[in-house]
From TrEMBL:
Pfam families hit by this protein: HATPase_c, PAS_8
Any one GO MF annotation of this record: ATP binding
Gene Ontology BP, a term: phosphorelay signal transduction system
Name of the protein this chain belongs to: histidine kinase
Transmembrane segment boundaries: 7-25, 31-50
Source organism (scientific name): Gluconobacter kanchanaburiensis NBRC 103587
PROSITE patterns, per the entry: HIS_KIN (PS50109)
Length: 404
């Protein structure tokens, strides 16, 4: 704006000098005429000089403030930060450094890993030169754990780097493969066992009915023994039949039908089911945040998963004088966290993976299906079910955490 005003002023000076000089000369004002001529020449020269400066400025090429080597470094850093795989570098002194944004976010650091996971250090020490990828489980600072494929490349000491480390998250793939293998196994087992159990149940019931009809209403001692034996066979066969059907249900778990659902009504229905079974024997505490919480889930499946967790907690809490369980919901960081706690004897954290394995139960009379089914349902929703660490001074001894 200022440059345009100055240019207009100079043009005005030139035009004024041209219009005034001639009349003033003819009237005899020679000195004044010469003054206006000088003024016009000065304005014209200033106008030409300004145009020359503008032309030179347009033609000028600003030298780059970044050297070619620095530009290459910046480009490589940008590429590393956009890589989704966490990348680390190991220095000659053994320290590990986050090389890109994914690694900094994973280990919650701006550079050096002050307390790297023990499993990662052990893998680098024991098998750093092995070809291919190896699987390791990393336990992170937020209490979560995931399985990563570890790939290590030698740095040769160039730039003080002895190893390049890439961590590929394979948790989801392993979970899917594990679930499919479990379904295949249970389908085969349930099919074969059911083929044998069905005729046993049917024939034992028929034999019991026929024998009772033949011996009449007052059977002798031998008849009583036979009747009792047949009844036992029938009851045990029926119990085993129900047991196998439970595992078959685990194998046949369908894909969840995800729909946007308000969480509060679902929690109320779960509370109703819990109280219908446990009445006044186990106290239930419910913690819900204020406001409406919407989440995409399969209502029937998630209800089954949470009821299983609550029943599991109630069974454990029964050993205490005042058994209590808690169902707490928290909305944080674009995630929904559902915690099921109990004041039972607690679970050893060393068993946190075993308790989710099918056929494994540490309770008397347990069938090892409740927790595996709950985890499979949560995984089907794209979430995680973990045994969370519990403060020793807290009122709750066991906490199961569902993250979605």
């Amino acid at each position: 704006m200022r440059a345009a005003f100055e240019t207009l002023l100079r043009l005005s000076g030139v035009v004024a000098a041209c219009l005034i000089t001639a009349p003033m000369w003819h009237r005899g004002f020679y000195a004044t005429s010469l003054l206006f001529v000088c003024l016009g020449v000065l304005c014209a020269a200033s106008l030409v000089a300004a145009q020359i400066r503008i032309t030179q400025r347009l033609k000028r090429h600003e030298p780059s403030v970044v050297r070619p080597l620095d530009r290459e470094k910046l480009r490589n850093r940008a590429l590393l930060d956009h890589a989704p795989v966490p990348l680390l570098i190991q220095q000659v002194d053994g320290t590990l450094h986050a090389a890109n944004r994914a690694a900094r976010r994973l280990f919650m650091t701006d550079g050096i890993l002050r307390e790297p996971p023990t499993s990662l250090i052990d893998a680098l020490k024991n098998d750093a030169s092995a070809p291919g990828k190896r699987l390791i489980r990393l336990f992170l600072k937020d209490g979560a754990s995931r399985v990563y494929a570890l790939s290590v490349g030698k740095g040769g000491g160039v730039g003080g780097i002895v190893a390049y480390v890439a961590l590929t998250d394979v948790e989801a793939g392993l979970n899917a493969a594990e679930a499919q293998a479990l379904r295949d196994l249970l389908q085969v087992l349930s099919h074969e066992i059911m083929n044998s159990l069905t005729p046993i149940v049917s024939l034992s019931a028929t034999a019991e009915e026929l024998f009772f009809e033949n011996v009449g209403g007052s059977p002798h001692d031998t008849g009583l023994l036979i009747t009792e034996a047949l009844g036992t066979i029938r009851r045990r066969a029926e119990g085993l039949d129900r047991f196998v059907r439970g595992y078959r249900d685990l194998a046949r778990l369908p894909e969840p039908d995800l729909k946007l659902t308000e969480l509060a009504p679902l929690i109320r229905e779960i509370v109703r089911l819990f109280k219908a079974r446990w009445t006044e024997r186990v106290a239930l505490e419910v913690v819900l945040p204020s406001g409406k919480i919407m989440v995409r889930l399969d209502v029937a499946q998630m209800e089954q998963a949470l009821v299983n967790l609550l029943n599991n907690g109630a069974e454990a809490a029964l050993e205490q004088p005042a058994p209590r369980v808690q169902l707490a919901v928290e909305a944080a960081n674009d995630a929904i966290i559902i915690r099921v706690r109990d004041n039972g004897p607690g679970i050893d954290m060393a068993l946190q993976e075993q308790i989710f394995e099918p056929f494994v139960s540490f309770k008397a009379g347990g069938n090892g299906i409740g927790l595996p089914l709950a985890r499979q349902i949560v995984r089907g929703h794209g979430g995680k079910l973990i045994l969370a660490t519990t403060d020793e001074e807290a009122q709750w001894s066991t906490t199961f955490e569902v993250r979605m």
